[in-house]
């Protein structure tokens, strides 16, 4: 685990959490603390819940059953058991556990919502959630079982299990019973009081934990796609003219403008472009000529997803909500995950789009009738197959990504005896886009690998400065292919360069 106190802590109050904060905490790079002003709001909301629990009026989630059992009154003596039963019964998730970064993000997001002061949680319960993050106690949360209706009920119930010492958790990366993980961290489980179980399991935090990290990855991949496209363009001796500012100024979509500007930076100082200034070729294929239009549209879709998530992760998505000012506890529908679900579907489409055009550029590079280079970029083709199957792998990933891009947000399976008769499938959308991001990363790694081989065949003439810097970094990890070898290792090496951020950092530095 990284040293969480080596960087400034992330302070939560329910209003100002950034996606970058989520990323830091998910990687255990920052501690978490509650903002002083938030403490007062949490305490005031809890006092209202306690007054309601002590009264005789039926209040949903405090002294009633849940869902279609909302009209069933529960005796005051059973309120603790009601909350415990809620958590136990809703912990019905299946499948692999969320990876540790996503589980940390989930715990952070839930704590942030509780800190907002509309949940009615007790301060000590919120404090335990925060301390679990700081002491590396991470709940084991199965990733499947949410339809995103009353939020992510099953995943959040598994999170809540850890707070009461049930279920499983990781302590410093080791999986064990939650009560043992808490004990080893010097923490004690809580006994849930009125409304606390419901406060822990209602909300969109599981889908947002998975989706927010996928979004951040997608933003980096959109810039990586520009780099891969620029490298392929140079290897194919493509024209730089389609990226001229005046072309994009008269169709000023923000993403298109940004992509074209980025390409101009990456290609600045190119020697290769001078080698074909007066060739007879009139136009490049769309996968080269239309990079700003295609990548730019993806950028705009990704920006939409960011704007949606920036609102969602700082929103009160509980039910019922505690309004201290009016002295009321009101049922609503803020738990419904439709905004996030739609955003994740858009993100999946955007990343699939980037993978699709990347695969077409790979085909341009390996097809001798299109590139003018040796078949499959093999230096002794026939004896060597070169990058033949690298293109096939990219095509396979694109095909699967297209299937995964079918929107989850338009699907709905009624649940809870018809009370939850329209659901968002937000967690499904988040899990899909996580996989699409993984595929897009691999497709771009293949393109960068193949384009680097094309640049080898253009030596000693050099590409643009940003492209050259990326090419040199790739060659530090992956030598030029002289004879056939296992491509899996080469692709994995370039994937690591993408994931680490080194590739973008090198190209940015060289082209700034």
| CATH superfamily label of the largest domain | Fumarase/aspartase (Central domain)
The low-confidence parts are none
What is the number of domains? 2
Overall pLDDT metric:
94
Structural write-up:
The chain has 2 domains: 4-203, Orthogonal Bundle (Fumarase C, Chain B, domain 1), CATH 1.10.275.10; 211-511, Fumarase C, Chain A, domain 2, CATH 1.20.200.10. 56% of the residues lie in helices and 6% in strands. It is built from 20 helices and 9 strands. The protein is elongated, with a radius of gyration of 26 Å. The model has no long low-confidence stretch (mean pLDDT 94).
What keywords describe this structure?
mainly alpha, Fumarase C, Chain A, domain 2, 2 domains, two-stranded parallel ribbon, 20 helices, 9 strands, elongated
Topology:
Layout: E1 10-12, H1 19-26, E2 32-34, H2 36-54, H3 79-90, E3 94-97, H4 100-115, H5 123-134, E4 137-139, E5 142-144, H6 153-163, E6 168-171, E7 174-177, H7 178-184, H8 196-201, H9 205-235, H10 245-249, H11 254-267, H12 286-289, H13 291-312, E8 321-323, E9 328-330, H14 338-366, H15 368-371, H16 388-404, H17 426-456, H18 465-477, H19 487-500, H20 502-511
Parallel strand pairs: 1-2
Antiparallel strand pairs: 3-5, 4-6, 6-7, 8-9
